[in-house]
Every structure is written in C-alpha cells, then in structure tokens.
Amino acid sequence: MRSTCPVKFLLLGLLLGSASVPRAFSQTVELPAVIIEETLPFDLLAPSAGTTIIEEHAIQTSAAPDLPSLLSSVPGVILSPTGSEGAQASVSLRGSTSNQVLVLVDGVRVTDPATGLTDFSRLGIPLDQIVQIEVQRGGLSAQYGADAVGGVIHIHTRRGSKNLSARISLENTSFLPSSITIGNGLSAITVPFVGSALIDGQSLSLAAENQWLSAWAKISRAANGYPYYDTNGERRRRENAGLLAASGGLQTRFPLSAGEISSSAKVSYRSVGIPGSLDIPTPEAHQEDWNANLTMQFRTDALLAGALALELSPYAQAGGIRYQQSQTSAVDSHISYRAGLDSSLSWLPPWNGEVKAGASFRYDRLESSVVKGAGGSAPERFSGGIFAEPSFGFGTWTAVPALRFDMTNDFPSGVSASFGLIHDFSKQTAIRATISSAYRAPSFDDLYWPASGGAEGNPSLKPESAISGDISLTHKEDACTWSVGTFARYARDVILWQPDDAGIWKPSNFGNALYPGIEAESSWKAGSWNLGANYTFLYSYVLSGNLSLSDDRRVPYVPVHAASLSASRTTKAFKSAFLFTYQSLRFTTTGNRAFLPATLIANAKLTWELGPRSDFELSFQNLFDERYEAVKGYPMPGFSLSATVTLRFEGARPGQN
C-alpha cells in the first residue's frame, strides 16, 4: 500500500503557503511589484491553476532582451544563467530543478536526452519569431508524461502572416569601457580603457513571411568580454567566453479541404568558449554544438460532422556537442537522436463538456565518446504513453479529471493523474483548483556517466516523483486582469549528485523537499500605458536525510521572494518599455550558510520609427549596473547597451492589386 505521507505534506504545504508569510516578510524590505502579461482565457480548460500566457504583443513590446529574461518576469520562474549571450541558461518553476521543467517548441519537447534539461542558450529562436508562450506551473505528467514535475513551458513560433513581409536587423552590443587588471601578483598591471567593449558583439537577423510560410535566419558573434570582480575584489575582463552562432528556421502551412498540414524545421550551430567558474576556471575550454529539428503536423476538425478534431505530429531531432577542456586534452563528443509521434483527439460529447485524449511514442538515443550503456552500447530509451482528459460541466462548475499511463524500456511503467475544478462566479471571475501527480525519468548522464574524472552514474536510479496542488482566483476585464493563488508541491526521490566516502560524485535518490507558496499577478491599462506586476512567495523546505520541517532549511537557489514590474507605451512613432525583476537572497547549500545576495535588475528599451519602413532601437540591460551572480562562481554582465537598426518591407495581401 502506498504511503499517504505526500498528501499530508501537500495539505500542510498549502497551509504553510499562507501561514508562513508574516515570518518571511520580517526578514526583508518592501519590494517593487511585478509583471504579468496575460492570463489564460476563460474559454480554455487549464490543467494547472497557475497558468500565464504571454501573447505576441506583450513579447514584442517587452523590455526583455532575450527569451530567458522574458521568462524571468513570469511568476514562479527562476532563471539560472551562467553568463552573457551563449552561456548556459536554464529555468525552474516553483522551485523545481531545471530537469523537472518540460519545454516544448511548437508542441515538441526539446529537453536534452543526455542531461535532461533545456539550455535556452542553445534554442537560438529570436524573440520576434515567437508569437505566444504558455507557462503552466504545477505537476502536468497526466497530460505530458515524464519531466513535467515543476510545469511546462510551451513556445509557439511564427507560421506566416496574411501579407507578404520581410525585415532585416543589424545589432551592436556594448559594455561600459573601464579599467581592468591583467595578470597576477607582481606581474599584474592595470589597463585604463578597453575600447573593444564598445563593439563586443554584433548580430544580423533576416526574416520573411507570407500567407503560407515563414523563414528566418540569424548570425551573431560576441566576445562577451564584460568586466567583473574576482574573488579578491579586483576588476577583470571575462575571458574565453566568446561566441559565434548561426541559426535559422522555416515554417510552412498548407490548407486542405478538411484541415491543414504544416511543417517546422530549425537548425542551429554554435562555437563557444567555456570560461568555467571563478574557483575552477577553464581558460582553454571550448565547445561546438549543433541542433536540427523537423516537425510535421496534420490537423482537422471535420470528423463526425465537426464534433471530433484530430492532430498528428511526427518529429525528428538530432543534436551534437564537441567539448575539449584544453588543447592537450581529449575531445568529448556526444550526438543525440530523437524521433517520435504525438497524437491527440478532441471530442464534443452530448453532455456539456469536452473529451481530450491522445497517445505519444518517442525514441531517444545517445552516441557518446564518454557516456555508455550496459556493455558499452549506446544508451537508448523507448517511451510510450496514452492519456485521457474529459471535462464535465455542471452549471457554473466544471470538473477536469486526467489520467495517463506511460511505459519505457529502462524503468517501471507508471500512472499519472490529476483533477481540476473550475467555478465561474461570473464571465469575468473564476476560481480554479488542481491536484496532480508527476514524475521525472533519470537522464542518460544520471544513469550511465562513466567512472572517471571523479564521477560515476548510477544505473539503479528510480524516477523522481511529486504530488502538487494549487488554488487560484482570477478576474479578467478588458482593461484589467488579476490573479492570486496558493500552491504546494512535495517532491520525493529527487536525484542528487554528491560525493561518497571515496570522494566520487554519484547520483542517488536522496532528496525530498516541500515547496509551499503564494503567487499574485496583475496587468492593466492606464491611458497609453500597459502595466504589469507579479509577486511570488516560495518558502521551500529541504527534507532530505535527517532534516525535517523543524530544521527550517531552504532549498538551494530558491528565493523566498521574487517580483517583477513591467511598463510599456506605444505611440505612432515611439515605443518605450521597462522591466524590473527582483529576487531575494538565495542559499547555495542545503546547510544554508553560504548565500548569494538579493538582486534588482532593470532593463529598458526605446524604439524610434525613423520612417515608414525603418526603426532604431536602444536596449539597456542591467541599467543599474548591478554586480551579481545567478549561479555561484559565474559573474553576470553589468550594464550593457544594444543598438539595433531594422528595415522592413510589407507587400500586398495575395490576391490584392
């Protein structure tokens, strides 16, 4: 019989999400509030009560310079970048690990089979090619299968427009020129001015689209030689962080008499320096990586006289990494392959509701010079799952149960479930509640990392599991939207890498944790201004080993308070946008002795219309020149300025004279 302990912890967590607030607030100062883009429309059923949808207008008018920065303005999202452009950047949701967040691009997962996480620096998708981002917080394995423990981030890219259009953009990024120290000890010298900082990085972007296709390409290079302070307090220049990257995509759509066929192809290549941390620098480390993705989609809603809709999505992916730590060390190479098929049905039944169901099949394979499976073979995984999610309407109430069965070849099969309840007080106001289970499969690195270099994988690992719940109250009007809710998640068997008695780092199902919290977000219009704010309170508890709630230990890198504030204004010839994000201090160990201080990061963007077909944009990142680290040992850039010139062409709609 299964233990009821997770349910007890979950109920306790939902109470702690409210009861712990006064105590936590006494530790900090009053903060600025935050951003919200758009909440889920009421005519959609959300399996998670904590859902934020960022629409295209909010994406294009945001002051965020890139996709990770934009996501950091969403409640519950914690960003973990390790440097400037090209450096690894991952996210967590409501305190989850980065491996517990499922990332989808146009409906297809893009998590790395080797590491189990998504490095947003490798996606290579420009912001102007994204038309919508859905961030669903909470356990969603009943809908999506493995890895959706903290939630799901779904990125939708552009697929054409009614009119023929094209644009070209040229961008230059500058850091503040400043004096830096070169060398160490008696040989150290001070260089008073580093002029190359003014032309640190450049990029060229091209895009074109019409009614049936959208194509884009981007080429960029950056030295990423921003100034930072070392452990001795001396200002130095970040070295071996250079980037050369190219990416592109092509999306097509072909309307049929009874549906639509579409395709999406994306490729990317990068050559990037890996500087390492301040404690363990890698001045010669270098990495080359590439990705290629192809997805086909068939959609129709013409079955059973329009009562049944079908969607089929076959896909194939490949990606490679070539890493060399020094010029004299061996080269590590990894190539991953993924192929699969996702299918879903949506049926309008005789009762008031909807029935969603589907199946998915996926094959993952890793060919690596380092990571080997049993007997030296290439690690591979076959996965399959089926799910059903009916909804039942009873007046102003809607019940949404969901059930999914998943099976794989390398760990036991399992069932994930969720139950959602929605009550509409009016057309503008609703309350949502969800309880769900979720799990994450161990990655190939977790299972098969070789016994070398002071580390070794563990083929006996079990999947991580969690049970979560949330309740939210949402109100939506044309000029104002707000939402407030509480949530909790109890995670079991969290995979943790730690040294054994011999000093060898090995993963084990060691970690347990409780994550109670509160989220609030709002967006409103004030004249010509669009304003947004959000706040997240997350009082996590480490429950691993002999630790209990009474030990009051925070989960590393999970801030108690996070907030953001956004503002944008658009006139005929001028646009302005501002974004402020705040995080309270974050402990870096489970002992809660070492920590990273609180941060307040400000970004701004100003855009002038030079003519009917040209724009000039200034983007200010880290406006206050904040000196900070998001991950210990990896200094982040200070103030930087990007200047962009964009030329546009817009033709007539097909069929027009």
UniProtKB/TrEMBL annotation:
Residues 50-152 form the TonB-dependent receptor plug domain. InterPro entries: Beta-barrel_TonB (IPR000531), Beta-barrel_TonB_sf (IPR036942), Plug_dom (IPR012910), Plug_dom_sf (IPR037066), TonB-dep_rcpt-like (IPR039426). It is a multi-pass membrane protein. Residues 1-24 form the signal peptide. It is found in: Cell outer membrane. GO terms for biological process: siderophore transmembrane transport. The keyword Zinc-finger does not apply. One of its GO terms (molecular function) is siderophore uptake transmembrane transporter activity. Residues 287-623 form the TonB-dependent receptor-like beta-barrel domain. It comes from the Bacteria. Keywords: Cell outer membrane, Membrane, Receptor, Signal, TonB box, Transmembrane, Transmembrane beta strand, Transport. One of its GO terms (cellular component) is cell outer membrane. The keyword Disulfide bond does not apply. Gene3D superfamilies: TonB-dependent receptor, beta-barrel domain (2.40.170.20), TonB-dependent receptor, plug domain (2.170.130.10). Belongs to the TonB-dependent receptor family. PANTHER family: HEMOGLOBIN AND HEMOGLOBIN-HAPTOGLOBIN-BINDING PROTEIN 1-RELATED, TONB-DEPENDENT OUTER MEMBRANE RECEPTOR. This is TonB-dependent receptor.
